[in-house]
Amino acid sequence: MLQVFVFNIPVESGERIGFSTTLLLAITVYMTIVSNRLPDFSYLDISYLSNFLLSDVTSGILLIICVIQSLRFYHAPVMQQFPKVWVPDLIVGNPYGSNINLAENGRVVQFTNEGEAVWQPANVFEMNCVAQIAYYPFDMQNCTFGFLPWGFGVKDLFFNVVSQELMNIYFSPNGKWEITNTRLYSQIFYGDQLLRLEFTFKRRSRYEIINTVGPIIILGMLQVFVFIIPVESGERIGFSTTLLLAITVYMTIVSDRLPDVSYPDISYLSYFLLSDVTSGVLLIVCVIQSLRFYHAPDSQQFPKWVIYITKVCSKWKQKVSPKDKQHINDEQIVNSDDIHVPTASEEEEREAPPINWPMISGCFDKICICCFTCICMIRTIVLFVMLTM
């Protein structure tokens, strides 16, 4: 009867084998004692006690076999693989190309010693994702992968999400994207249950800032300096057209790095490049007009608006550096009747320098420098505000 209690001994104690073999040894000892006290012949019949001891030895051997098998079950690997087990047909809800059935590539199911079935299908997935490129290169992408149990409704198959966070044990960091958030959840969609995996990516923008955004802003600021180049050098047109060509090259590079879609929005950097190209074209027009002013013949009549702009530019220049006033001693008194106060028109005629076409070209260059500098600063500030919202 004591043999039965071997299964009550905890497996972790390591005493089951020793206990069962000790009992078997005790039974064989008692069997030897009984056989020594009985006559050694087989005629007519054998003692019932000998038969009982023999059955005890047999049950003891079977008990040891059961104990060994129990220990094998306990210390077996956590999971055992069974290749011929039913698994649901899970298809990708938003595939990029052909549809993928997870059950086709992995039907091996692992069972734990607690009866839990584990199915781990592996595959490489290509799925559709709406690209949010408005804030490139500071953009964040939110992609959702959907898996649909084909042919099974909510009553037939139910997804019980244990944890909403995905495990990233085997994830290796990417040099271009950083995963900021993951989410796993189930959703009822037209009577079918979907298993959705949501990933939030953030672009690592340092490379794009150094190689794309920085040069674009520098080229835009460099356009203003075309009006500082002396007209006599003959390099203004070449300088401005080269900058415009460089900006269009960067516009092509940026467009190649972004998907050619218009929904939900276009990158603000593309708008900035378009404004750069527009300002570059206007700048070339202004440079040509400045050269026309400079090389105009002296016999050509001045338009009224050109004379007005030149006078305003000349007055502004005089107001920037006013002459120091002369201090008059208190002892020097002059009679007010001897002083002639000039009128505004006389003062303007006396202070206004003679107008010529090179002067008009210089005033036009100054106005263009102020205007294009303001445009460049406003565009750059608006770009950074929009990208970092």
| Tally of individual domains | 3
Q: Give the CATH level 1 class of the largest domain.
A: Mainly Alpha
Radius of gyration: 47 Å
- Assign the CATH topology of the largest domain: Methane Monooxygenase Hydroxylase, Chain G, domain 1
Biggest sheet character: 4 strands, antiparallel
Number of helices: 9
How many beta-strand runs? 7
Helix content: 40-55%
- The chain-level mean pLDDT equals 80
Strand order of the largest sheet: 2-5-7-6
Label the overall shape. Answer: rod-shaped
Describe what you observe in this structure:
The protein is of the alpha+beta class. It is 45% helix and 13% strand. It has three domains: 73 residues; 106 residues, no CATH class; 144 residues, Neurotransmitter-gated ion-channel transmembrane domain (Methane Monooxygenase Hydroxylase, Chain G, domain 1). The chain contains nine helices and seven strands. The strands form two sheets. A four-stranded antiparallel sheet has the order 2-5-7-6, with no helix packed on it. A hairpin with a 2-residue loop joins strand 6 and strand 7. It is rod-shaped, with a radius of gyration of 47 Å.
